[in-house]
Each structure stands twice: as structure tokens, then as C-alpha cells.
Specification:
Structural class: alpha+beta
Radius of gyration: 18 Å
Distance between the termini: 24 Å
Strand order of the largest sheet: 4-3-5-6
Number of strands: 6
Number of helices: 8
Order of helices and strands: HHHHHEEHHEEEHE
Helix content: 40-55%
Shape: globular
Largest sheet: 4 strands, mixed
Strand content: 5-15%
Length: 228
């Protein structure tokens, strides 16, 4: 059962952690490369702000973005801004998201995200939590996958394993951290690859943040995952 109120508190906490750490940067640091190819830290911060507004659109029944081109153009437009403007935008857009989520609503309703993807409204706060946590890591300012809350790591691993489940281009795979286990990829037809590793390394591989070199693989090569 998704508890959207709990997830909204988690989003609030994650946002405050991010704003505190980004606030220690300077203008030059914002223009430096992030861990995402082709994006500076300014791009990441601009994306976080515009994503909050996009999820407001989702919850209010509008298209998430006018178009992919407009989404990309908005990020490019906002990326070069100085640190104080970036911080204010992330903070204010996060507040708009929280305000919309605080309004009485049917959280069981279906909403539409990008590219025709649908979900229940109650899962939108978790999706925002994912954006804030993973992009905090992407900034490359000292917050690592190992620093993510344990609950978040487990739930995002659940989500990503389910996302790739049944994907014809992903070999049948069993994932385990030694305590918990997940299955993903095509239906196992008698042969299955087993991937073992620490929770942070498993999540990093599933989320495209790590190549998987720290994982142990048995039964075949490490499967290639499609981009998110």
C-alpha cells in the first residue's frame, strides 16, 4: 500500500538535504559538469525545478510537459543561472508541488505522465522522491548512493526490477543483496543469471548510475539494461 503522505514527508526531507548541500556551492561550481553526460550541475538543478512543476501539471490534469522539445529548451534556458536563483527556483517549485499535494484529492485516480505512461496519483510523491534523491547523487557533491535512505533504496530497487520485468531484451535475472531477492528480465526458461551485490551497487546498476563492476554475476554475463 502506497502511503502518499509518508512519501511527501520523505520528499520534503530529501529536498531540504539537497538544498542545504547545494547552498554550500558557489556560482562557479554550478557551471561545472555533473555526473550526467552533457549536463552541468545547473542543468540538474533546472531539471529538478521544472520536474516539480511538471508533476503539478500531472496532478492537476494537464500534460506533464508541453512537449519533449519544450522540456529540453526550458532546462537549457535555466541551467546557466547563478546559484541563488537556482536555489530559489528549486525551493519555490518544491513548495508548489507540496501545496498541490496538500489539497484534498482522490489519490486513487489514474494520472498520465510522459509518453503515455500512467500511474495512480498516490505514486506521484514517490516518483518525485526518486527525482530528488538520484539527482542529488548526480550532482557529484559528496552525496552517494550509499547515503540514500535504506527505505528509498529498497523501494526504488523494487520499482526498477519491476520495470524491467518481462523485457525481452533483458536476460532472466535474479538480483540479491544477500538478504532480499528480486527477479527481472524475461521469464526464466530454466536458465537465470544471478547478480549479487550491496544494495547501493544493485540500485546503481539498475538506475544506470554504476556499470556493475562491483557486482558478482553467476550463470552468464551481466545483463545489459535498456536506458530509463
Amino acid at each position: 500500500m502506497i502511503d502518499h503522505a509518508h512519501d511527501l514527508e520523505s520528499v520534503r526531507d530529501a529536498t531540504e538535504r539537497l538544498l542545504t548541500e547545494v547552498g554550500k556551492l558557489d556560482n562557479a561550481s554550478v557551471t561545472e559538469s555533473s555526473r550526467l553526460p552533457g549536463w552541468t550541475r545547473g542543468h540538474v538543478l533546472a531539471h529538478l525545478a521544472r520536474n516539480a512543476d511538471a508533476l503539478v501539471n500531472v496532478l492537476e490534469g494537464r500534460p506533464m510537459y508541453v512537449s519533449g522539445e519544450v522540456r529540453d529548451a526550458d532546462i537549457e534556458r535555466d541551467a546557466p543561472r547563478p546559484l541563488d536563483v537556482q536555489l530559489a527556483d528549486v525551493r519555490e517549485s518544491a513548495a508548489r508541488f507540496q501545496d498541490v499535494c496538500a489539497a484534498p484529492a482522490d489519490w486513487s485516480r489514474t494520472v498520465e505522465l510522459r509518453n503515455g505512461v500512467t500511474d495512480t496519483a498516490s505514486r506521484v510523491p514517490f516518483r518525485r522522491w526518486v527525482e530528488v534523491e538520484l539527482h542529488h547523487v548526480d550532482l557529484g557533491i559528496g552525496y552517494e548512493l550509499e547515503d540514500l535512505p535504506a527505505e528509498f533504496t529498497e523501494r526504488e530497487t523494487d520499482f526498477l526490477a519491476a520495470r524491467f520485468a518481462g523485457h525481452r531484451d533483458v536476460a532472466p535475472t535474479r538480483l540479491t543483496d544477500g538478504t532480499r531477492a528480486w527477479r527481472t528480465g524475461r521469464e526464466a526458461g530454466g536458465h537465470e543469471v544471478t547478480v549479487t551485490g550491496r544494495p547501493a551497487d544493485l540500485l546503481g546498476w539498475l538506475a544506470g548510475r554504476r556499470a556493475g563492476s562491483a557486482l558478482t554475476v553467476e550463470g552468464g554475463p551481466l545483463p545489459t539494461l535498456p536506458p530509463l
